[in-house]
Amino acid sequence: MTASTTEERHRSQAQQIHDLQRLRRRRFHMGVNASYVVLFAFLLYAFSGIQLQIGNLRFTTIRLDWAFIGEYWYFIFGGVGLTILLSVLSIALATILSLLGALGRLSKYPPAYALATFYISLIRGTPLLLQIIFFFLALPQLGIRLTGLSAGVLALGLNYGAYMTEIMRAGIQSVDQGQREAALAIGMTQPQIMRRIILPQALRLVIPPIGNQFIAMLKDTSLISVTGFVWEVLWRAQKVGRANFRSLEALLVAAIFYWIITILFSAVQGRIEEYLARGERTSA
Prior knowledge:
This protein has 10 helices and 2 strands.
């Protein structure tokens, strides 16, 4: 058997394995898509209002008021922009607080470490809803009056900042110690090392988990509706739902909007992660 024949046989076997793997992936995706179709068909049937009788058993699905949905869906949709704005402002505040908290947790200065630890313990030890109500209703007794938007951004930023502190700290600590030592060897100060070497690499590592926190925050903005002064998606849905005794339809519309927003931003996050991963492979 010649070397060329052996090489062709190996190439043929490799091609067969590749074709088999591609066929399996295709079958898997076809099965997933078929399952999606079945799930959506079931949901459509569940909310179709159709009555089905089998023998003595009668099955009645949920009947929605489509006239109400057609009339008020755009009013509920009007809160989407405010929901996104709340999330963007809150995640910006949370990122700054998490960076300061991480630096405090890594600090050798006792007051800085104690302050960061106290902040994390206090915020993570109390419910987010309580924090929102506290900033909106309790602070006025001290002469501090915040709007519903300000109270919501402050509460969300403080809450997520406490949880993101550990993410930021892990990102800073993941930078190789050898780079710090090399920077010290060429005469760089600690602030310069942190600003020019450690933070750029750490922020690149923590962007994906921060994206996950942002998506979670998009849904937690609904808690701000308890203030009654922020017209985001859930507040609008509750308003028209209660006024027209159609809370089911209104809340379903709000849920769909939250779902769509989450899907869109998840897709954006996936693209960002692919871009960062491609950059890491290129640099490697």
